[in-house]
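Q: How would the structure tokens look for this protein?
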Amino acid sequence: MSRRGTDYQGRRQTYLPSGKGLMTGHRAEWRARSQTIPSDPPSVLLIGCGAVGSVISRHLCASDAIDNVVLADVNGDLAKRVAVHLGSRKARATQLDANDGDQLHMAMRGCGLVINAALPRFNKPIQRAALEAGLHYVDLANDSPDPFKDPGEWASRGLTAILGMGEDPGLSNVFARHAADGMDRVDSIKVRDGDTASSSEYPFIALFSPETFVEETLSSSRIWRDGAYESVPPLGEFEMYEFPPPIGALPVYSVDHEEVDTLPQFIGKGVRYVDFKLSLDPPTVQGLKSFRDLPDGPGARKTALSAIPRPADLVGRVGGNAALLVEVAGTKDGERRVHTLYTVMGHPEAAEKFGATATAYLTGTGAAVATLLLASGRIRKRGKLSPENLDPRPFFPMLEERGIAVHERVSQDRPPAQPLRA
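A: Here is the predicted structure in token form.
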């Protein structure tokens, strides 16, 4: 039985049973199942101790599914500060250069799983070392449009590598899989990242890696349309998109993102359209254009990037809200269905409750939940996996337990009648 409600745009929608059904409906099932999986808690090597890594470490240290957490960063003092702040006997810190294979192998000794929460450019050396050392692997962003080559090598060794498992990509892919699983055919998947963050102290901010933010927004992007990719110029495909309250309408632009690479490949069901759009307010767009117009050469950009505050330094110093929304349209039993999942979190709220920005908390919690599912044996699939390759059901209760409320609405409309043919 479904219930009726009104969505944030005032339209009448059909909701799934009970407001908590999405988050809690499978909790008992998965807890019971997990109790039958014998495994010793692994130690985890966490590489990258910035804003997102700090969130991940907090979740891992709080879980009985993890034995110890080795906090590794090229800045050894930062790793030590994070370990001290955690105040957990499980945490210890080490200095690590992720480009150094010998250092990686040494740091991986005694661990069963490694997470790359540093920049995507370190994915390949960390993956290579993890495969050689026999460790499961999780990262938060892909370093190429097709990082899933040779998945059999991981599977043959009984190992799992989950690629792009943060907020978006990551939770966005999980949301898309959940919605697609309820459809016979999928027509379109739209991913929207909305944010109203603002700072009275800084004219230009980036809530995740400034280097990654500038690179992906100033690169050409792609849209999957009718079985082929279309190239979109930087800051292209502008539209105003209505996000759930308290955010409202925001300007969004097509951005180079992993979901457009992986969802057409792994969702199936005839998906004909996939895009990813990020909200960028006019001052941010102007700032990005200034980056674009810098003189050639790495020196000018490096200097400009150094003036942007680190994401970890923005905790408690920005207002506004962050939202992740995924809208999947398709058909079920001959009826058109639009299934939307979203979560909204305030930056001040995240700072007060979790000591992070909302963006860092959503990203780090997505990675941590996948890690805990893998460490506890509830993810048994082996090989290189994208988040949409995973069963989405156990994610929702674990997100709810960690303060992330995921909402959904489902609207159903019959497709337009087709003209009769003689």
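The longest helix spans residues 358-375.

Residues 171-356+406-413 form a domain with the Dihydrodipicolinate Reductase; domain 2 fold (CATH 3.30.360.10).

Upvote if useful.
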